[in-house]
Amino acid sequence: MGRYEVLDDVAIADCALEVEGTDLDDLFSTAARALAELMVDPATLTPTLERRIDLEAPALDLLFFDWLSELIGLKDAEGAAFPEVEVHVERGTPCRLRARLVGGPLHGGSTPALRSDPKAVTFHLFRLEPWAGGWRARVVIDT
Amino acid sequence: MKTIPIADCVWEIPPTEKAGMRVPARIYASEALLAGMDAGVFEQVTNVACLPGIVGAALCMPDGHWGYGFPIGGVAAFRAEDGVISPGGIGFDINCGMRVLRTSLTEAEVRPRLPELVDALFTAVPTGVGARGFVRLGDEDFADVMREGAGWCVRHGYGWPQDLEATEGGGCLPGADPAHVSARALARGREQLGTLGSGNHYLEIQVVPADGVHDAAVARALGIDGPGQILIMLHCGSRGFGHQVGTDYLRRFDGAMRSYDIVVKDRELACAPFRSPEGQAYFAAMTAAANTAFANRQVITHRVREVMGRVFGRDARALGLSLIYDVCHNTAKLERHVVDGVARDLVVHRKGATRSFGPGAPDVPAAYRHLGQPVIVGGSMETGSALLIGTERAMHETFGSTAHGAGRTMSRAQAKKRVWGETLLQDMKRRGIVVRAASKSGVAEEAGFAYKDLAAVVDVLHRLDISRRVVSLRPIGNIKG
What we know:
The complex is a heterodimer of chains A (about 140) and B (about 475).
Chain A: E1 3-7, E2 15-21, H1 24-39, E3 49-57, H2 60-78, E4 80-90, E5 95-105, E6 120-121, E7 127-131, E8 134-142
Helix pairs in contact in A: 1-2
Chain B: E1 4-7, E2 10-13, E3 25-28, H1 31-36, H2 39-48, E4 54-65, E5 72-79, E6 84-85, E7 97-106, H3 107-110, H4 114-124, H5 139-148, H6 150-155, H7 161-165, H8 183-189, E8 202-207, H9 216-221, E9 229-236, H10 239-256, E10 272-273, H11 277-312, E11 323-328, E12 330-339, E13 342-351, E14 353-355, E15 374-377, E16 385-390, H12 392-397, E17 401-403, H13 412-418, H14 421-430, E18 434-437, H15 440-445, H16 454-464, E19 467-480
Helix pairs in contact in B: 4-11, 5-11, 8-10, 10-11
Protein backbone atom coordinates (compact mmCIF):
# COMPACT_ATOMS: atom_id res chain seq x y z
CA MET A 1 0.00 0.00 0.00
CA GLY A 2 1.49 3.32 -1.06
CA ARG A 3 1.88 6.39 1.10
CA TYR A 4 2.24 10.10 0.56
CA GLU A 5 3.43 13.11 2.49
CA VAL A 6 2.82 16.84 2.05
CA LEU A 7 6.18 18.64 2.21
CA ASP A 8 5.80 21.72 4.41
CA ASP A 9 8.68 23.83 3.25
CA VAL A 10 8.70 23.59 -0.54
CA ALA A 11 7.07 26.10 -2.94
CA ILE A 12 5.16 27.66 -0.08
CA ALA A 13 2.07 28.91 -1.93
CA ASP A 14 1.55 25.49 -3.49
CA CYS A 15 1.42 21.85 -2.40
CA ALA A 16 4.48 19.64 -2.70
CA LEU A 17 3.82 15.91 -2.48
CA GLU A 18 6.25 13.05 -1.93
CA VAL A 19 4.55 9.82 -3.04
CA GLU A 20 5.76 6.23 -2.65
CA GLY A 21 4.35 3.03 -4.11
CA THR A 22 5.26 -0.62 -4.04
CA ASP A 23 5.04 -0.65 -7.83
CA LEU A 24 3.98 1.76 -10.57
CA ASP A 25 0.29 0.90 -10.26
CA ASP A 26 0.46 1.62 -6.55
CA LEU A 27 2.40 4.85 -7.08
CA PHE A 28 -0.08 6.18 -9.61
CA SER A 29 -3.13 5.25 -7.52
CA THR A 30 -1.60 6.66 -4.33
CA ALA A 31 -0.85 9.95 -6.11
CA ALA A 32 -4.45 10.06 -7.35
CA ARG A 33 -5.70 9.52 -3.81
CA ALA A 34 -3.41 12.30 -2.55
CA LEU A 35 -4.77 14.65 -5.18
CA ALA A 36 -8.40 13.81 -4.33
CA GLU A 37 -7.70 14.32 -0.62
CA LEU A 38 -6.22 17.70 -1.46
CA MET A 39 -9.61 18.67 -2.94
CA VAL A 40 -12.07 17.15 -0.48
CA ASP A 41 -12.48 14.91 2.56
CA PRO A 42 -13.27 11.63 0.74
CA ALA A 43 -15.42 10.41 3.63
CA THR A 44 -17.89 13.22 2.87
CA LEU A 45 -18.14 12.50 -0.84
CA THR A 46 -21.03 10.42 -2.19
CA PRO A 47 -19.52 7.95 -4.68
CA THR A 48 -22.05 8.09 -7.49
CA LEU A 49 -19.74 8.50 -10.48
CA GLU A 50 -17.54 6.05 -12.35
CA ARG A 51 -15.12 6.96 -15.12
CA ARG A 52 -12.55 5.08 -17.21
CA ILE A 53 -9.39 6.70 -18.50
CA ASP A 54 -6.82 5.55 -21.06
CA LEU A 55 -3.65 7.60 -21.48
CA GLU A 56 -0.35 7.24 -23.25
CA ALA A 57 2.82 9.31 -23.15
CA PRO A 58 6.33 9.06 -24.59
CA ALA A 59 7.96 8.68 -21.15
CA LEU A 60 6.95 7.37 -17.76
CA ASP A 61 7.35 10.69 -15.96
CA LEU A 62 5.23 12.40 -18.61
CA LEU A 63 2.56 9.74 -18.17
CA PHE A 64 2.56 10.55 -14.45
CA PHE A 65 2.30 14.29 -15.24
CA ASP A 66 -0.56 13.67 -17.68
CA TRP A 67 -2.34 11.35 -15.24
CA LEU A 68 -2.49 13.93 -12.48
CA SER A 69 -3.33 16.68 -15.00
CA GLU A 70 -6.23 14.56 -16.24
CA LEU A 71 -7.63 14.20 -12.72
CA ILE A 72 -7.35 17.95 -12.15
CA GLY A 73 -9.11 18.51 -15.47
CA LEU A 74 -11.97 16.21 -14.45
CA LYS A 75 -12.42 18.25 -11.26
CA ASP A 76 -13.33 21.30 -13.36
CA ALA A 77 -14.98 19.67 -16.36
CA GLU A 78 -17.26 17.46 -14.24
CA GLY A 79 -17.18 19.24 -10.88
CA ALA A 80 -16.16 15.95 -9.30
CA ALA A 81 -13.35 14.25 -7.40
CA PHE A 82 -12.37 10.59 -7.63
CA PRO A 83 -10.66 9.18 -4.52
CA GLU A 84 -11.10 5.49 -5.44
CA VAL A 85 -8.78 4.49 -8.24
CA GLU A 86 -7.69 1.27 -9.88
CA VAL A 87 -4.88 1.86 -12.30
CA HIS A 88 -2.64 -0.29 -14.44
CA VAL A 89 0.56 1.18 -15.90
CA GLU A 90 2.52 -0.37 -18.76
CA ARG A 91 6.07 0.74 -19.47
CA GLY A 92 7.05 0.82 -23.13
CA THR A 93 7.12 3.09 -26.14
CA PRO A 94 4.81 4.75 -25.52
CA CYS A 95 3.99 4.21 -21.84
CA ARG A 96 0.32 3.47 -21.25
CA LEU A 97 -2.19 3.69 -18.46
CA ARG A 98 -5.67 2.29 -18.00
CA ALA A 99 -7.70 3.41 -15.00
CA ARG A 100 -11.10 3.09 -13.39
CA LEU A 101 -12.18 5.95 -11.15
CA VAL A 102 -14.97 6.12 -8.60
CA GLY A 103 -15.96 9.41 -7.02
CA GLY A 104 -18.66 11.98 -6.58
CA PRO A 105 -19.76 15.55 -7.24
CA LEU A 106 -18.16 18.35 -5.24
CA HIS A 107 -21.34 20.42 -5.19
CA GLY A 108 -25.00 19.50 -5.31
CA GLY A 109 -27.15 17.29 -3.12
CA SER A 110 -24.59 16.22 -0.52
CA THR A 111 -22.27 18.63 1.32
CA PRO A 112 -18.72 17.43 0.84
CA ALA A 113 -16.06 19.02 3.07
CA LEU A 114 -14.17 20.97 0.42
CA ARG A 115 -10.48 21.69 0.69
CA SER A 116 -8.19 23.16 -2.00
CA ASP A 117 -8.72 23.75 -5.70
CA PRO A 118 -5.61 22.35 -7.42
CA LYS A 119 -4.87 24.25 -10.62
CA ALA A 120 -2.14 22.28 -12.33
CA VAL A 121 0.80 19.91 -12.07
CA THR A 122 4.16 21.67 -12.24
CA PHE A 123 7.56 20.48 -13.41
CA HIS A 124 9.25 22.25 -10.50
CA LEU A 125 11.34 19.65 -8.60
CA PHE A 126 9.38 17.02 -10.52
CA ARG A 127 10.82 13.51 -10.40
CA LEU A 128 9.77 9.89 -10.66
CA GLU A 129 12.26 7.13 -9.90
CA PRO A 130 12.70 3.54 -8.72
CA TRP A 131 13.24 3.48 -4.98
CA ALA A 132 13.65 0.77 -2.33
CA GLY A 133 12.25 -1.94 -4.55
CA GLY A 134 9.28 0.21 -5.52
CA TRP A 135 8.80 3.69 -6.96
CA ARG A 136 8.60 7.20 -5.63
CA ALA A 137 7.70 10.59 -7.07
CA ARG A 138 7.90 14.21 -6.03
CA VAL A 139 5.45 16.65 -7.53
CA VAL A 140 4.47 20.24 -6.76
CA ILE A 141 0.80 20.99 -7.40
CA ASP A 142 -0.19 24.60 -8.01
CA THR A 143 -2.99 25.34 -5.56
CA MET B 1 24.54 33.26 -2.69
CA LYS B 2 26.25 36.67 -2.72
CA THR B 3 23.70 39.50 -2.43
CA ILE B 4 25.18 42.98 -2.82
CA PRO B 5 23.32 46.14 -1.77
CA ILE B 6 23.48 48.58 -4.68
CA ALA B 7 20.96 51.19 -3.50
CA ASP B 8 18.36 51.67 -0.77
CA CYS B 9 16.21 48.49 -0.84
CA VAL B 10 17.95 47.15 -3.97
CA TRP B 11 20.07 44.00 -3.77
CA GLU B 12 21.94 42.49 -6.67
CA ILE B 13 23.19 38.96 -7.29
CA PRO B 14 25.98 39.25 -9.88
CA PRO B 15 26.08 36.95 -12.92
CA THR B 16 29.21 35.30 -11.53
CA GLU B 17 27.12 33.62 -8.83
CA LYS B 18 25.66 30.94 -11.08
CA ALA B 19 26.88 29.40 -14.31
CA GLY B 20 24.71 30.50 -17.21
CA MET B 21 23.43 33.79 -15.80
CA ARG B 22 23.14 36.26 -18.69
CA VAL B 23 22.19 39.24 -16.53
CA PRO B 24 22.25 40.04 -12.81
CA ALA B 25 19.34 39.21 -10.54
CA ARG B 26 17.89 42.06 -8.53
CA ILE B 27 15.75 41.81 -5.42
CA TYR B 28 13.81 44.79 -4.10
CA ALA B 29 13.45 44.54 -0.35
CA SER B 30 14.29 46.09 2.98
CA GLU B 31 16.98 44.33 4.96
CA ALA B 32 14.31 42.66 7.10
CA LEU B 33 12.22 41.48 4.13
CA LEU B 34 15.34 40.18 2.38
CA ALA B 35 16.36 38.25 5.49
CA GLY B 36 12.91 36.66 5.61
CA MET B 37 12.90 35.49 1.99
CA ASP B 38 13.19 31.75 1.54
CA ALA B 39 16.09 30.14 -0.32
CA GLY B 40 13.83 29.36 -3.26
CA VAL B 41 13.64 33.06 -4.20
CA PHE B 42 17.39 33.35 -4.71
CA GLU B 43 17.61 30.07 -6.61
CA GLN B 44 14.67 30.88 -8.83
CA VAL B 45 15.46 34.49 -9.66
CA THR B 46 18.98 33.47 -10.71
CA ASN B 47 17.51 30.64 -12.82
CA VAL B 48 15.39 33.23 -14.61
CA ALA B 49 18.54 35.30 -15.24
CA CYS B 50 19.82 32.36 -17.37
CA LEU B 51 16.94 32.41 -19.88
CA PRO B 52 17.68 33.38 -23.51
CA GLY B 53 17.00 36.96 -24.54
CA ILE B 54 16.59 38.39 -21.05
CA VAL B 55 17.49 42.08 -20.75
CA GLY B 56 18.45 44.30 -17.82
CA ALA B 57 18.08 42.02 -14.83
CA ALA B 58 15.84 39.28 -13.48
CA LEU B 59 13.76 41.03 -10.83
CA CYS B 60 11.96 40.03 -7.66
CA MET B 61 9.58 42.35 -5.84
CA PRO B 62 9.50 42.74 -2.02
CA ASP B 63 6.56 40.34 -1.67
CA GLY B 64 8.66 37.63 -3.36
CA HIS B 65 8.63 34.03 -2.21
CA TRP B 66 9.35 30.53 -3.47
CA GLY B 67 7.10 29.66 -6.39
CA TYR B 68 7.59 27.30 -9.35
CA GLY B 69 9.73 28.40 -12.29
CA PHE B 70 9.85 32.12 -11.54
CA PRO B 71 9.61 33.17 -7.90
CA ILE B 72 6.31 34.74 -6.97
CA GLY B 73 6.98 38.47 -7.36
CA GLY B 74 9.16 37.76 -10.38
CA VAL B 75 9.52 40.13 -13.32
CA ALA B 76 11.63 39.55 -16.41
CA ALA B 77 11.72 41.10 -19.87
CA PHE B 78 12.88 39.29 -22.98
CA ARG B 79 13.71 40.73 -26.40
CA ALA B 80 10.73 40.08 -28.67
CA GLU B 81 12.97 39.34 -31.64
CA ASP B 82 15.14 36.61 -30.13
CA GLY B 83 13.98 36.07 -26.55
CA VAL B 84 11.66 33.47 -25.08
CA ILE B 85 8.22 33.18 -23.57
CA SER B 86 7.72 30.80 -20.64
CA PRO B 87 4.49 29.61 -18.97
CA GLY B 88 6.54 29.26 -15.77
CA GLY B 89 7.04 33.03 -15.87
CA ILE B 90 3.32 33.69 -15.93
CA GLY B 91 1.82 30.95 -13.80
CA PHE B 92 -1.08 28.63 -14.49
CA ASP B 93 -3.62 31.15 -13.22
CA ILE B 94 -3.20 33.39 -16.24
CA ASN B 95 -4.26 36.97 -15.55
CA CYS B 96 -4.97 36.31 -11.94
CA GLY B 97 -5.61 39.86 -10.86
CA MET B 98 -7.28 42.35 -8.58
CA ARG B 99 -10.23 44.63 -9.03
CA VAL B 100 -11.52 47.34 -6.71
CA LEU B 101 -14.84 49.17 -6.78
CA ARG B 102 -15.75 52.29 -4.87
CA THR B 103 -19.12 52.80 -3.21
CA SER B 104 -20.85 55.83 -1.74
CA LEU B 105 -21.67 53.77 1.35
CA THR B 106 -20.06 54.24 4.73
CA GLU B 107 -19.14 51.66 7.32
CA ALA B 108 -21.90 52.99 9.54
CA GLU B 109 -24.46 52.16 6.82
CA VAL B 110 -23.00 48.74 5.97
CA ARG B 111 -22.11 47.39 9.41
CA PRO B 112 -25.72 46.64 10.53
CA ARG B 113 -26.34 44.62 7.33
CA LEU B 114 -22.88 43.08 7.06
CA PRO B 115 -23.80 39.43 7.83
CA GLU B 116 -26.71 39.63 5.38
CA LEU B 117 -24.47 41.19 2.72
CA VAL B 118 -21.71 38.61 3.15
CA ASP B 119 -24.23 35.75 3.00
CA ALA B 120 -25.84 37.19 -0.14
CA LEU B 121 -22.49 37.64 -1.88
CA PHE B 122 -21.46 34.11 -0.89
CA THR B 123 -24.63 32.78 -2.49
CA ALA B 124 -24.31 34.87 -5.66
CA VAL B 125 -20.63 34.27 -6.35
CA PRO B 126 -19.81 30.54 -6.42
CA THR B 127 -16.65 29.69 -4.51
CA GLY B 128 -14.47 26.69 -3.85
CA VAL B 129 -13.22 23.69 -5.76
CA GLY B 130 -15.49 22.50 -8.58
CA ALA B 131 -17.90 25.47 -8.40
CA ARG B 132 -19.90 26.48 -11.48
CA GLY B 133 -21.14 29.91 -12.51
CA PHE B 134 -24.51 31.05 -13.84
CA VAL B 135 -23.35 32.08 -17.34
CA ARG B 136 -23.83 29.30 -19.88
CA LEU B 137 -21.48 29.51 -22.87
CA GLY B 138 -21.80 27.73 -26.18
CA ASP B 139 -18.67 27.25 -28.28
CA GLU B 140 -19.15 30.48 -30.23
CA ASP B 141 -19.91 32.48 -27.11
CA PHE B 142 -16.82 31.11 -25.41
CA ALA B 143 -14.68 32.02 -28.43
CA ASP B 144 -16.11 35.55 -28.27
CA VAL B 145 -15.25 35.78 -24.56
CA MET B 146 -11.67 34.79 -25.41
CA ARG B 147 -11.45 37.46 -28.10
CA GLU B 148 -13.37 40.25 -26.34
CA GLY B 149 -12.71 39.73 -22.63
CA ALA B 150 -14.68 42.06 -20.38
CA GLY B 151 -16.17 43.71 -23.49
CA TRP B 152 -18.21 40.55 -24.11
CA CYS B 153 -19.69 40.90 -20.64
CA VAL B 154 -20.64 44.53 -21.12
CA ARG B 155 -22.18 43.66 -24.50
CA HIS B 156 -24.31 41.02 -22.73
CA GLY B 157 -25.44 43.24 -19.87
CA TYR B 158 -22.90 42.13 -17.25
CA GLY B 159 -21.30 45.52 -16.76
CA TRP B 160 -21.14 49.17 -17.62
CA PRO B 161 -19.24 50.60 -20.61
CA GLN B 162 -17.07 52.70 -18.29
CA ASP B 163 -15.87 49.48 -16.59
CA LEU B 164 -13.76 48.77 -19.65
CA GLU B 165 -11.97 52.12 -19.47
CA ALA B 166 -11.04 51.30 -15.85
CA THR B 167 -9.57 47.89 -16.68
CA GLU B 168 -5.95 47.21 -17.64
CA GLY B 169 -5.80 46.90 -21.41
CA GLY B 170 -9.45 47.89 -21.63
CA GLY B 171 -10.28 44.39 -20.39
CA CYS B 172 -9.14 42.83 -23.66
CA LEU B 173 -5.56 42.07 -24.62
CA PRO B 174 -4.86 41.89 -28.35
CA GLY B 175 -3.82 38.70 -30.13
CA ALA B 176 -6.12 36.10 -28.58
CA ASP B 177 -6.84 33.18 -30.87
CA PRO B 178 -9.24 30.41 -29.77
CA ALA B 179 -7.75 28.12 -32.44
CA HIS B 180 -4.74 27.62 -30.15
CA VAL B 181 -6.82 26.51 -27.18
CA SER B 182 -7.40 22.81 -26.46
CA ALA B 183 -10.78 21.10 -26.11
CA ARG B 184 -9.73 20.20 -22.57
CA ALA B 185 -9.31 23.88 -21.69
CA LEU B 186 -12.79 24.61 -23.06
CA ALA B 187 -14.28 21.78 -21.03
CA ARG B 188 -12.63 23.03 -17.85
CA GLY B 189 -13.65 26.65 -18.32
CA ARG B 190 -17.04 26.43 -19.94
CA GLU B 191 -19.10 26.67 -16.74
CA GLN B 192 -16.75 28.69 -14.56
CA LEU B 193 -17.38 32.27 -15.65
CA GLY B 194 -18.30 34.25 -12.54
CA THR B 195 -16.65 31.90 -10.04
CA LEU B 196 -14.06 32.88 -7.47
CA GLY B 197 -11.99 29.70 -7.01
CA SER B 198 -10.18 28.94 -3.77
CA GLY B 199 -6.75 29.41 -2.21
CA ASN B 200 -5.97 33.08 -1.78
CA HIS B 201 -8.81 34.25 -4.02
CA TYR B 202 -11.40 36.38 -2.33
CA LEU B 203 -14.16 38.94 -2.56
CA GLU B 204 -13.85 41.46 0.22
CA ILE B 205 -15.77 44.34 1.73
CA GLN B 206 -13.26 46.90 2.91
CA VAL B 207 -13.29 50.22 4.67
CA VAL B 208 -10.93 53.19 4.53
CA PRO B 209 -9.64 53.44 8.11
CA ALA B 210 -9.28 56.73 9.98
CA ASP B 211 -5.56 56.88 9.24
CA GLY B 212 -5.86 55.19 5.84
CA VAL B 213 -5.56 58.11 3.42
CA HIS B 214 -1.93 58.83 2.57
CA ASP B 215 -2.42 61.03 -0.50
CA ALA B 216 -5.78 62.80 -0.37
CA ALA B 217 -5.54 64.38 -3.82
CA VAL B 218 -4.81 61.12 -5.63
CA ALA B 219 -7.37 59.29 -3.49
CA ARG B 220 -10.03 61.80 -4.54
CA ALA B 221 -9.09 61.33 -8.19
CA LEU B 222 -9.65 57.58 -7.71
CA GLY B 223 -13.10 58.23 -6.22
CA ILE B 224 -12.13 57.73 -2.60
CA ASP B 225 -13.67 60.41 -0.43
CA GLY B 226 -12.09 59.61 2.92
CA PRO B 227 -12.19 57.46 6.06
CA GLY B 228 -15.25 55.32 6.62
CA GLN B 229 -15.94 54.79 2.92
CA ILE B 230 -16.70 51.21 1.80
CA LEU B 231 -14.84 49.64 -1.12
CA ILE B 232 -15.22 46.20 -2.69
CA MET B 233 -12.11 44.28 -3.75
CA LEU B 234 -11.86 40.98 -5.57
CA HIS B 235 -8.99 38.69 -6.44
CA CYS B 236 -9.30 35.86 -8.95
CA GLY B 237 -8.19 34.76 -12.40
CA SER B 238 -8.92 32.62 -15.43
CA ARG B 239 -9.97 29.52 -13.46
CA GLY B 240 -9.64 26.03 -14.98
CA PHE B 241 -9.52 27.42 -18.51
CA GLY B 242 -6.28 29.31 -17.90
CA HIS B 243 -4.88 26.50 -15.76
CA GLN B 244 -5.30 24.10 -18.68
CA VAL B 245 -3.77 26.51 -21.21
CA GLY B 246 -0.71 26.70 -18.96
CA THR B 247 -0.60 22.92 -18.60
CA ASP B 248 -0.95 22.31 -22.35
CA TYR B 249 1.88 24.64 -23.29
CA LEU B 250 4.21 23.72 -20.43
CA ARG B 251 3.95 20.15 -21.67
CA ARG B 252 4.46 21.23 -25.29
CA PHE B 253 7.45 23.47 -24.54
CA ASP B 254 9.03 20.72 -22.45
CA GLY B 255 9.40 18.75 -25.66
CA ALA B 256 10.02 21.68 -28.02
CA MET B 257 13.04 23.12 -26.19
CA ARG B 258 15.32 20.45 -27.64
CA SER B 259 14.66 21.63 -31.19
CA TYR B 260 15.71 25.16 -30.21
CA ASP B 261 18.76 24.03 -28.19
CA ILE B 262 17.37 25.64 -25.06
CA VAL B 263 18.44 24.27 -21.71
CA VAL B 264 16.81 25.57 -18.53
CA LYS B 265 17.83 25.31 -14.88
CA ASP B 266 14.35 24.27 -13.75
CA ARG B 267 12.10 22.18 -15.97
CA GLU B 268 9.21 24.45 -15.02
CA LEU B 269 10.98 27.24 -16.92
CA ALA B 270 10.27 25.35 -20.16
CA CYS B 271 10.08 27.99 -22.87
CA ALA B 272 10.15 28.63 -26.59
CA PRO B 273 11.36 31.53 -28.68
CA PHE B 274 8.65 34.18 -28.67
CA ARG B 275 8.68 34.39 -32.47
CA SER B 276 8.58 30.59 -32.95
CA PRO B 277 5.33 28.82 -33.94
CA GLU B 278 5.13 27.35 -30.44
CA GLY B 279 5.79 30.71 -28.79
CA GLN B 280 3.20 32.50 -30.89
CA ALA B 281 0.62 29.76 -30.30
CA TYR B 282 1.10 30.01 -26.55
CA PHE B 283 0.92 33.81 -26.66
CA ALA B 284 -2.41 33.59 -28.53
CA ALA B 285 -3.81 30.99 -26.10
CA MET B 286 -2.44 32.76 -23.03
CA THR B 287 -4.03 36.01 -24.21
CA ALA B 288 -7.34 34.19 -24.68
CA ALA B 289 -7.08 33.03 -21.07
CA ALA B 290 -6.16 36.54 -19.91
CA ASN B 291 -9.27 37.91 -21.60
CA THR B 292 -11.38 35.19 -19.99
CA ALA B 293 -10.02 36.27 -16.59
CA PHE B 294 -11.10 39.86 -17.29
CA ALA B 295 -14.53 38.47 -18.17
CA ASN B 296 -14.60 36.42 -14.98
CA ARG B 297 -13.93 39.44 -12.80
CA GLN B 298 -16.48 41.44 -14.81
CA VAL B 299 -19.25 38.87 -14.27
CA ILE B 300 -18.45 38.80 -10.55
CA THR B 301 -18.66 42.61 -10.54
CA HIS B 302 -22.12 42.33 -12.09
CA ARG B 303 -23.18 39.94 -9.32
CA VAL B 304 -21.78 42.27 -6.66
CA ARG B 305 -23.83 45.15 -8.09
CA GLU B 306 -26.98 43.01 -8.15
CA VAL B 307 -26.51 41.86 -4.57
CA MET B 308 -25.66 45.25 -3.13
CA GLY B 309 -28.55 46.84 -4.96
CA ARG B 310 -30.87 44.26 -3.43
CA VAL B 311 -29.47 44.42 0.09
CA PHE B 312 -29.42 48.21 0.28
CA GLY B 313 -32.58 48.77 -1.75
CA ARG B 314 -30.93 51.10 -4.23
CA ASP B 315 -29.69 50.76 -7.77
CA ALA B 316 -25.96 50.01 -8.07
CA ARG B 317 -25.46 53.38 -9.75
CA ALA B 318 -27.12 55.12 -6.84
CA LEU B 319 -24.71 53.24 -4.57
CA GLY B 320 -21.82 54.68 -6.57
CA LEU B 321 -20.51 51.18 -7.36
CA SER B 322 -18.08 52.21 -10.07
CA LEU B 323 -14.89 50.41 -10.91
CA ILE B 324 -11.72 52.16 -9.75
CA TYR B 325 -9.39 49.80 -11.59
CA ASP B 326 -8.63 46.19 -12.53
CA VAL B 327 -5.01 45.00 -12.70
CA CYS B 328 -3.41 41.79 -13.90
CA HIS B 329 -0.62 40.13 -11.98
CA ASN B 330 0.11 36.93 -13.96
CA THR B 331 0.80 37.85 -17.58
CA ALA B 332 3.32 38.24 -20.35
CA LYS B 333 2.71 41.38 -22.39
CA LEU B 334 4.38 42.86 -25.40
CA GLU B 335 5.54 46.30 -24.24
CA ARG B 336 8.02 48.91 -25.34
CA HIS B 337 10.63 49.94 -22.77
CA VAL B 338 13.94 51.75 -22.92
CA VAL B 339 16.92 49.48 -22.24
CA ASP B 340 20.43 50.96 -22.27
CA GLY B 341 19.05 54.07 -23.94
CA VAL B 342 17.29 52.19 -26.74
CA ALA B 343 13.52 51.66 -26.98
CA ARG B 344 12.89 47.95 -27.45
CA ASP B 345 9.91 45.66 -27.92
CA LEU B 346 9.97 43.32 -24.95
CA VAL B 347 7.92 40.39 -23.71
CA VAL B 348 7.48 41.43 -20.09
CA HIS B 349 6.66 38.50 -17.81
CA ARG B 350 5.04 39.35 -14.50
CA LYS B 351 4.34 36.47 -12.16
CA GLY B 352 2.75 37.68 -8.98
CA ALA B 353 3.71 41.21 -9.95
CA THR B 354 1.60 44.19 -10.98
CA ARG B 355 2.06 46.66 -13.78
CA SER B 356 2.82 50.13 -12.37
CA PHE B 357 2.88 52.47 -15.35
CA GLY B 358 3.59 56.10 -14.56
CA PRO B 359 1.93 59.35 -15.62
CA GLY B 360 1.49 59.75 -19.38
CA ALA B 361 2.19 56.09 -20.11
CA PRO B 362 0.13 54.33 -22.78
CA ASP B 363 -2.82 52.22 -21.66
CA VAL B 364 -3.41 54.27 -18.52
CA PRO B 365 -7.09 55.37 -18.51
CA ALA B 366 -7.62 58.99 -19.56
CA ALA B 367 -9.03 59.86 -16.13
CA TYR B 368 -5.80 58.73 -14.45
CA ARG B 369 -3.26 59.52 -17.16
CA HIS B 370 -1.92 62.58 -15.37
CA LEU B 371 -1.46 60.51 -12.19
CA GLY B 372 -0.27 57.10 -13.34
CA GLN B 373 -1.91 53.71 -13.22
CA PRO B 374 -3.76 52.67 -10.06
CA VAL B 375 -2.02 49.73 -8.40
CA ILE B 376 -3.87 47.29 -6.14
CA VAL B 377 -1.81 45.39 -3.60
CA GLY B 378 -3.86 42.72 -1.88
CA GLY B 379 -3.07 41.66 1.66
CA SER B 380 -4.37 38.88 3.85
CA MET B 381 -8.05 38.62 4.80
CA GLU B 382 -7.13 39.64 8.35
CA THR B 383 -4.88 42.61 7.83
CA GLY B 384 -5.98 44.57 4.77
CA SER B 385 -4.86 45.82 1.38
CA ALA B 386 -3.51 48.96 -0.25
CA LEU B 387 -4.01 51.20 -3.25
CA LEU B 388 -1.00 52.83 -4.79
CA ILE B 389 -0.24 54.72 -7.97
CA GLY B 390 2.26 53.92 -10.72
CA THR B 391 5.34 56.07 -11.22
CA GLU B 392 7.79 57.24 -13.84
CA ARG B 393 10.55 55.65 -11.74
CA ALA B 394 9.00 52.20 -12.25
CA MET B 395 9.24 52.66 -16.01
CA HIS B 396 13.03 52.94 -15.72
CA GLU B 397 13.70 50.61 -12.80
CA THR B 398 11.33 47.64 -13.11
CA PHE B 399 9.85 47.64 -16.64
CA GLY B 400 6.88 49.46 -15.11
CA SER B 401 6.24 46.84 -12.44
CA THR B 402 5.62 46.60 -8.71
CA ALA B 403 4.49 44.11 -6.05
CA HIS B 404 1.12 42.35 -6.10
CA GLY B 405 0.48 41.44 -2.49
CA ALA B 406 1.93 40.81 0.92
CA GLY B 407 3.62 37.55 -0.04
CA ARG B 408 3.54 34.34 1.97
CA THR B 409 5.96 33.58 4.77
CA MET B 410 4.91 29.98 5.35
CA SER B 411 3.31 27.15 3.42
CA ARG B 412 -0.37 26.37 3.48
CA ALA B 413 0.37 23.10 5.29
CA GLN B 414 2.31 24.94 8.01
CA ALA B 415 -0.47 27.50 8.43
CA LYS B 416 -3.06 24.74 8.90
CA LYS B 417 -0.93 23.23 11.67
CA ARG B 418 -0.96 26.53 13.57
CA VAL B 419 -4.67 27.32 13.59
CA TRP B 420 -8.05 25.71 13.05
CA GLY B 421 -10.21 27.35 10.41
CA GLU B 422 -13.22 27.56 12.75
CA THR B 423 -11.11 29.11 15.53
CA LEU B 424 -9.81 31.74 13.14
CA LEU B 425 -13.32 32.48 11.83
CA GLN B 426 -14.60 33.08 15.36
CA ASP B 427 -11.60 35.21 16.24
CA MET B 428 -12.06 37.35 13.15
CA LYS B 429 -15.76 37.72 13.91
CA ARG B 430 -14.86 39.09 17.36
CA ARG B 431 -12.64 41.61 15.59
CA GLY B 432 -15.50 42.69 13.33
CA ILE B 433 -14.57 40.74 10.19
CA VAL B 434 -17.37 38.52 8.88
CA VAL B 435 -16.16 35.62 6.72
CA ARG B 436 -18.01 33.01 4.66
CA ALA B 437 -15.84 30.32 3.12
CA ALA B 438 -16.41 27.15 1.12
CA SER B 439 -13.57 25.45 2.98
CA LYS B 440 -12.64 25.93 6.64
CA SER B 441 -9.20 24.45 6.10
CA GLY B 442 -8.80 27.00 3.31
CA VAL B 443 -9.48 29.75 5.86
CA ALA B 444 -6.64 28.49 8.05
CA GLU B 445 -4.29 28.51 5.05
CA GLU B 446 -4.97 32.22 4.57
CA ALA B 447 -4.42 33.36 8.16
CA GLY B 448 -2.72 36.72 8.50
CA PHE B 449 0.37 35.21 10.16
CA ALA B 450 1.05 33.22 6.96
CA TYR B 451 1.84 36.50 5.17
CA LYS B 452 4.46 39.21 5.38
CA ASP B 453 3.62 42.57 6.89
CA LEU B 454 1.86 44.38 4.05
CA ALA B 455 2.84 47.79 5.42
CA ALA B 456 6.51 46.77 5.24
CA VAL B 457 6.11 45.68 1.60
CA VAL B 458 4.28 48.88 0.67
CA ASP B 459 6.89 50.95 2.49
CA VAL B 460 9.60 49.46 0.25
CA LEU B 461 7.59 50.20 -2.90
CA HIS B 462 7.09 53.79 -1.74
CA ARG B 463 10.75 54.27 -0.78
CA LEU B 464 11.87 52.87 -4.11
CA ASP B 465 9.27 55.06 -5.81
CA ILE B 466 8.16 52.21 -8.07
CA SER B 467 4.64 52.95 -6.83
CA ARG B 468 3.37 55.51 -4.31
CA ARG B 469 1.14 54.89 -1.33
CA VAL B 470 -2.37 56.33 -1.69
CA VAL B 471 -4.82 54.52 0.59
CA SER B 472 -4.74 51.65 3.09
CA LEU B 473 -7.83 49.47 3.40
CA ARG B 474 -9.13 47.30 6.24
CA PRO B 475 -11.38 44.25 5.67
CA ILE B 476 -14.76 43.95 7.37
CA GLY B 477 -16.28 41.17 5.26
CA ASN B 478 -14.77 38.42 3.17
CA ILE B 479 -15.96 35.54 1.05
CA LYS B 480 -13.52 32.95 -0.14
CA GLY B 481 -13.23 29.48 -1.57
